[in-house]
Model the fold of this input.
Amino acid sequence: MFKTILIIFLVLAAVGVAGGSYYYFEVYSPEKYAGAVLSLYQKLESAGLEPDASSLKNASDYENALRVLNEKISLLNSIKSDLAAVEVPKRMENFQNEFMNYIDFLLPRHEHAKDLAEFLSSANVLHEAFEALDEQRAPSSPTQPAADFQELFAKRFSKIQSAGREFARKEVEVVTDPSFSELKTLWEGASPGFDLVLKKISQLNPKLPASQMMNNLFTPSEQKQLDSYTPKVEGLSKKLDDLVKKYQAYDILAFKYFPDSTSAEASERSLKFYNTLQELKAKYGTR
Done:
């Protein structure tokens, strides 16, 4: 009799363990996983699957484009890290792989766009410094002191120098037309001309009337040097203008210049991810 009761208890215990294991692996664990993953998906969906261009002021607002991309890259890396920490039931591995692969698909696109926006932001600072030279004011009176223009031009040429040095400081790997190396070569050829002009401006007698400001400012030797720099200055100015007109901040955020996939391929990849997550949401999202 005792043996019979013991056997019954053992059988019941075995059934209980089996039932508990079934519930954990087939019900509880998948639901827990789905909850964690759908929460991460909601986080990604709320931020937008594509970068938001609504904060851009204009087509050359590379600085804001860069900010948007940095924030999105930070979010993607955070989601990827959280996703990797989720315990994955065997039966849910396809959802895990799809989500992880999609993040890995998004990151290179965002990082390439970030590098491009960073390069164009630096190039545009130099471009705007060149444009400021075209805004030079004519003397309102022949007797107006040179000091008024001495300060103005010194500031503008100094801005070009600092912007040019910053532009050329960091090597750029993104491919553009005109290229970074082409622009850097032009800058290196033009830069001594700005140094020469700034030096001569600083030596002007501030008390001279503006009408005499440029008289005999350069020696014949210096003028010859300046003439040799002028084509490079003009070439650099034109190339910078071409660059910022060709590569718009809106298009950067749309990944127009990403070389490794077309927009059609990106749409197809996004749709596959969306459908997979909708399948997960349909099974576990309302529980």
